[in-house]
Every structure is written in C-alpha cells, then in structure tokens.
Specification:
Layout: H1 3-12, H2 26-38, H3 42-57, H4 65-79
Helix pairs in contact: 1-4, 2-3, 3-4
Length: 80
C-alpha cells in the first residue's frame, strides 16, 4: 500500500478520531488505493472515497463528495 496515501488520509482524519492510530483507516485506505488505480477521474475517485467512508462509518462520516474531492485530487497526483 502507498504510504503517502496512508499519511494523507490520516492527516485528513475524516472521522476526527483522537488519538488516531496509524492503522485506524487501514481497511478504507486499502479500498481507496485500489479504486485510485481503476480511475483517472478525480470526481469519480471522490465519489468512491465518499462511498467507502460512508459504508464504514455510517452517520459518523459527515463529509460531502466535494469535501472528498480535495483528497481525491491529492491521491491522483501521487498515483498517476
């Protein structure tokens, strides 16, 4: 798995978990990393990021797709 993506997601900390363990979002990061390899669209990756976190954390995840777009752009910049 890409350590840069781990660091980005942990810094973003979309569920605002404190204290945050290094592997707190491991499952979600793995899914997002795989999705990033399947698309060239920032918007599509943002939707996938939103979907992954919404499925994992339900109501605790309150970010919009637009919120996910900035992290999707960062991920696309390092994986492509």
């Amino acid at each position: 798995m890409n350590n840069d993506i781990v660091q980005m997601i942990n810094e973003w900390n979309p569920i605002e978990i404190y204290p945050l363990l290094e592997d707190e979002y491991y499952s979600e990061i793995h899914k997002i990393h795989e999705k990033s390899k399947e698309t060239n669209s920032i918007r599509e990756l943002a939707k996938q990021i939103h979907s992954v976190f919404a499925q994992s954390f339900k109501k605790e995840f309150d970010k919009s797709i637009e919120d996910c777009q900035s992290i999707a752009e960062k991920i696309m910049n390092i994986t492509k």
